[in-house]
Amino acid sequence: MPELFGAEKRKFLVRCLADEKIAGSLEAAAELNYANTSGDKAPAQRQAARIAFTEDEKKAEASVRPDVARENNVVQNRLAKERAVKLADEGKTKDAVALLREQQQRNAAAPQSVQVPGMTEENRKLEDAAKEMDSQGQLAKSRRKAMQYENYSDKYQKSR
Questions:
Q1: To the nearest 10°, the Cα dihedral for 107, 111, 113, 119?
Q2: Packing angle between helix 66-89 and helix 119-136, nearest 10 degrees?
Q3: What is the dihedral of CA 54, 58, 63, 65, to 10 degrees?
Q4: For all residues of the chain together, what is the average pLDDT?
Q5: What is the pTM of this model?
Q6: Over the stretch 34-61, which tens digit does the pLDDT of each residue have?
Q7: Which of 34, 94, 112, 138 is the one with CA 20 to 30 A from 10?
């Protein structure tokens, strides 16, 4: 987790995996503990959520919070770009191209209510990087730096 300063606010997405089918619901909780700069332990911050399980697809879709789904899309794009850069660095450009294009398809398939603002631009950037790697067999240093900077900004929630 990056350093936090003063009254900064950060969003955290937590993914929960159930080992088996669970009937009904359960409560999940996350707790944040930290020390301030003087070394004193700050009061813990706790957030809980009730998770209901259902086989009903319509109920599941209705329970999706668009703001959380949009944040998840930002994270998924960042992870895809990070992985694509790593694959390109390893000389696996065909895999990197396929990964970027798969991410574009997932972005396009997302319901409008969870589309991230600027998704068309994001998809254009993904396609430009994919085309570049496909035609040149590698990722240009300038595009690699741009992708890494965008990922840094998204990861640490810096405004661009």
A1: 20
A2: 10
A3: 140
A4: 84
A5: 0.72
A6: 777 777 887 888 888 888 888 888 888 8
A7: 112
**pLDDT band at residue 160 under the 50/70/90 scheme:** very low
Q: Which residue has the tokens 């700069």?
A: 37
Q: Are strands 25-32 and 45-52 parallel, antiparallel or unpaired?
A: antiparallel
How far apart CA 95 and CA 105 sit, in angstroms, is 15
Q: Identify residue 31 by its one-letter amino acid code.
A: E
Helix (H) or strand (E) holding 38: none
Q: What is the share, in percent, of the chain residues with pLDDT greater than 70?
A: 94
Residue 81 has pLDDT above 80, yes or no: yes
Strands (E), the chain: 25-32, 45-52
What does the alpha-carbon distance between residue 76 and residue 71 come to, in Å, rounded to a whole number?
Answer: 9
User: 41 is written with which tokens?
Assistant: 């332990």
Separation of alpha carbons 66 and 55, rounded Å = 20
User: How far apart, in whole angstroms, are the C-alpha atoms of residue 139 and residue 42?
Assistant: 44
